[in-house]
Please model this.
Amino acid sequence: MIVVEELSVSYGAVQALREVSFRAETGVITAVLGANGAGKTTLLRTISGLKEPAKGTITLDEHSLARQKPENIARLGVGHVPEGRGVISEFTVEENLRLGAMMAKVNLSDGLEEQYQRFPVLGERRKQHAAKLSGGERQMLAMARALIAQPSVLLLDEPSLGLAPQVTAQLMHTIRDLCASKGLTVILVEQNASTALRIADHAVILYLGRVVANDAASIIVADEDLRQHYLGKVE
Ligand code: ATP
Model:
């Protein structure tokens, strides 16, 4: 379980997160929702050690994460799939996966095989450059690259960005399956609230860096005022 307490983060004079507190339970999908600039990406970057907080704590089980180096946080089992996917276009699918496996404690050939079984299209395209993949396939590759290190926590930043609705629906199904089958703790950042709330168990809404809602996804879906205020249209 990840516990975030009173986390404040700034970029110079811009305060991106203000005393943010919430829990992401083990084996559960926690959606982090909110408009542009709400602080969602900053939150994930702070959990994975890419940004240092001004104040507050982040713990993963008994480990304190805040102010640790990103490589140590990755070794503790936190996988981060950044917005825009972060795969290397000039590398083949397999080369991207090998890069992800550099942190892994698993046997590389077993690790590759597991990812090709989970995402068969990556197996078929293992020798192709990532530049040749569709948006949905690139997202799968980014997830597989994080998963090959056998994380216990997966941070997903806007995985649906730029994907067609059908591809997004498939991807969400995969995230749900992953969470259930591997008992992963998933923190899913989405601007597309409808998409995320379809699969999330719990949701946190950020507004200008503050938590304005922190509840079961079903309660947030049922709260029309909250949705209209902070999430726009939720279908
Ligand atoms: P988006 O969906 O647009 O990525 P977000 O909810 O992820 O939005 P953040 O990207 O975390 O929000 O940004 C939170 C605030 O911090 C915004 O006011 C943003 O302008 C500011 N910010 C983010 N990154 C930087 C940076 N590198 N330098 C200065 N300000 C930044």
